[in-house]
Amino acid sequence: MNITINKAQSLKQKPDESKLGFGIHFTDHMLNMDYNLDSGWHNPRIEPYGPIAMDPSTMVLHYGQAVFEGLKGYRNADGGIQLFRPQANFKRINRSCRALCIPEMDEATLLDSLKELLRIEKDWVPSAPGTSLYIRPTVISTDPFLGVRASHTYRYFLILCPVGAYYAEGFNPIKILVTREHVRAVRGGLGESKTPGNYAASLLAGEMAHKEGYAQVLWLDGVEQKYVEEVGSMNIFFVIDDELITPMLNGSILPGVTRDSVLALARSWKMKVSERRISIDEVMGAHASGHLKEIFGSGTAAVISPVGELKYGDKVIKVGDGGVGPLSRKFFDTISAIQYGRAQDPFGWVEPV
Ligand SMILES: *Cc1c(COP(=O)(O)O)cnc(C)c1O
User: Fold this and answer.
1) What's the start-to-end Cα distance of the chain, in Å?
2) N or C: which terminus of the chain has fewer CB atoms within 10 Å of its end residue's CB?
3) Which of the listed residues 163, 189, 214 is the one where a domain comes to its end?
4) Which residues fall within 8 angstroms of residue 13, CB to CB, at 6 or more apart?
5) Residue whose CA is at the smallest distance from ligand 1 atom 12
6) 260 within some domain
């Protein structure tokens, strides 16, 4: 598909790379593409970044028929820009689309248009250590209609956001709270889709955890509240003796690209790897008997987030010595080095722009 380009009249001032934060600054341009029943997905275009005017009755505002993605662009040592497994994100957005009755998009068009935008916005990719360009593709339903059904029109848009180093003050373990009061998703629902509703469903439990001094919520399964699912916006891993365990993709867990990358690396290192059900009782038991070595989360934003403390009911456990475990560090270092082009890429994960 042909991508039309309409450049901004004036460009913004770039933010200070040492104060980027997350989700605060946006670049000069964005991608847009429309869907209607007659033309299907059409008119991919690069336009100045700006507001989207909507009728107040626009369906997405009422029923949340929307999906999104999150990936990053990295500045490599040669000054070039590279993406990490973008094909996996575009495959996943289509999978989320199917679950929310949104028409699928052509994945080659999504990747080509992103690269085109990145070539125009290349000066926005920061180069300070640990910084990157966060990429947020989104699809929203746009019919001005209050009946409950799938929309007949949609807008795809993609925005870019330079982001700071996640671990500016060093690689820090987080504290997580296991919630028994709330559930995030159930099998057959939207848990395996990247859709705003999952985040809406997580806010109250998240706020309650914050009040108690915990950074994230560890979700248990929605039926029995027995098996571990995931943590905040990350998948979760446990190291028990020499076994690396992560909950299997059971229909209510988001299939993370970082999760998949950790599993591929662990298998290439000939580790004992299990994708299986793991109950919270097994985790607490492994800690009590001294077999629980590490817990860490995996996701695009932080790559690896070591867990230093976990609270379940009235029990609080310290994981390992409460610091950063050796495997957490090894996965973080290896994946980051591939993302920034400092290490070999044996899996073909890196996509040059
Ligand atoms: C995006 C997301 C993840 C992590 O996926 P990555 O592809 O590794 O970034 C995990 N859980 C939820 C609920 C998510 O939305």
Assistant:
1) 18
2) N
3) 163
4) none
5) 233
6) yes
